[in-house]
Amino acid sequence: MKLAQITCTAAGLALLAPAAIAHVTVVAEKSAPGATTKLTLRVPHGCDGEATEEIRVELPEGVYAAKPMPHAGWEIDTETGAYATPYDNHGTEMTEGVRSITWSGGSLPDDFYDEFSFRAALGAELAPGAVLYMPTVQTCATGEEAWTDTSGGHDGKPAPALTLAEAPTAPAHGHDHGHNHGHTHDHAAQDHAAHDHGSDGHAMQAQAAGATADVTLGDLTLSSAFTRATLPNAPVGGGFLTVTNDGDTDDRLIAATSPAAGRVEIHEMDMDGDVMRMRELADGLPIPAGDTVALQPGGYHLMLMELAAPLVEGETVDVTLTFETAGEVTLPLAIGAPNATGAGHEGMH
Q1: Looking at residues 77-96, what average pLDDT do you find?
Q2: Which of 75, 243, 289, 312 is the most buried (most CB within 10 A)?
C-alpha cells in the first residue's frame, strides 16, 4: 500500500530543504476527509546526540477515535478530553476521546531511526488542502526536541503536519467539467481540483461560499473571492479568488495581508503522484496580460497564517493584495463551509 507523504510545514518546504529530513514528520496511508487511517510519526534523530526516551504527540481537532499501536520495549499512555464538536463514529456520537499519546520507557539511539504509529479517523467535515498540525515532543536523558510550532512558518521547529488530500475520484457520469472557469498555469493542481466530486457523487460535493462583488484595479478584475470556515484553534486558512488581466502588460501578485492573520503568504499546491506538495511563491504569482489566473483549492491560493480567531461561515474577512503594476486593493473574502469550492454559484452543479 502506498503511503501519502505529508509535508512538515504548511509551505511544503520540508520536502525541498535538505535540513528538513531532521524534523519529526508524519505520514498517513490515507489522508482524505472522512478516512480512517494509520498515521505514523517518523523520528530521525535524538537530542543533540542523546537517545530518545519518550515521544508525545497531541492530536488536533479533526482527528478522533485514535488508538495507538504498541511499540516493542515502550509503554503507552493516553490522555482523553472533550472534542470541540461531536463526531459520528459509525452511528455512535463521540464527544470525547484520545487527545494525546505518549510512548515512553524505551531508548532510541541518536544513530537510529524509528516510527511510532496510531490509528485514527479524519473528520468528514474537513476540507481537502487543510493542514492538521500534531505538536510532538521527544524527550531524552537531559534534553528535548519540541516540534510544536503550528504557525506554518519556515523556521524553528515545525510541528508534524498532515495535509488533507482530495477524496478518491468517482466515475465522471457526465460531470467531467470541473469547477475552474479560468485558466491557471498549474495544470497538475488544476486537473486534480477539477474532479472534486468525491466518491459519492453529488452527495459529496462541496458547498459554495456566499458571493462577493467583483473588484476592478486598473486592468485587473478580481472576482469569486472566498475562504473556508476553520476549526477552533486552527492556525491557518486558505484564500481563493480569480484574477483577470485585460491589459497588455503582465502583472504579478507580490504580497498579501489581512487583519485576521499574523501574515499571509502566496502558495501553490499540487499532487506529485501520492505526494501533496505545497510551497510559498517567494517571487509572487504571475498574472499574464490577457489571461485569467484562478487561486483555488488544490492549486494556487493565499495562506492566512497565525489566525487570530476561527473563520466563521457566513461572515467575511478582508485581505489586502499588492500587485507589482496595478498596485494595492482591499477586498472581502466570503467565508463558506469548510469544504466550499467556490464563491456564489461556483462549485455548485
Answers
A1: 91
A2: 243
**Beta-carbon neighbour count of residue 154 at 10 Å?**
16
* pLDDT surpasses 60 at 194: no
Give the amino acid at 33: P
Question: Which structural domain, as residue segments, surrounds residue 212?
Answer: 187-343
Nearest Cα to Cα of residue 20 among 2, 47, 45 = 45
Cell numbers describing residue 4: 501519502
Domain CATH number, residue 268: 2.60.40.1890
Percent above pLDDT 90 for the chain? 53
**Number of structural domains found in the chain:** 2
One domain for residues 108 and 225:
no
Same domain, 103 and 141: yes
CB atoms within 10 A of CB 171: 10
Mark which of 163, 195, 214 sits at the end of a domain. Answer: 163
pLDDT tier at 171, thresholds 50, 70, 90: very low
DSSP character string of 183-225: --S-HHHHHHHTTTT-TTGGGGPPPEEPP---EEETTEEEEEE
Determine the length of the chain. 349
Cα three-residue angle 153-119-122, rounded to 5 degrees: 60
- Residue 158: pLDDT over 70: yes
DSSP-based three-state secondary structure for 13: helix
Q: What pLDDT, on a 0 to 100 scale, did the predictor assign at position 294?
A: 92
Q: Are residues 207 and 306 in the same domain?
A: yes
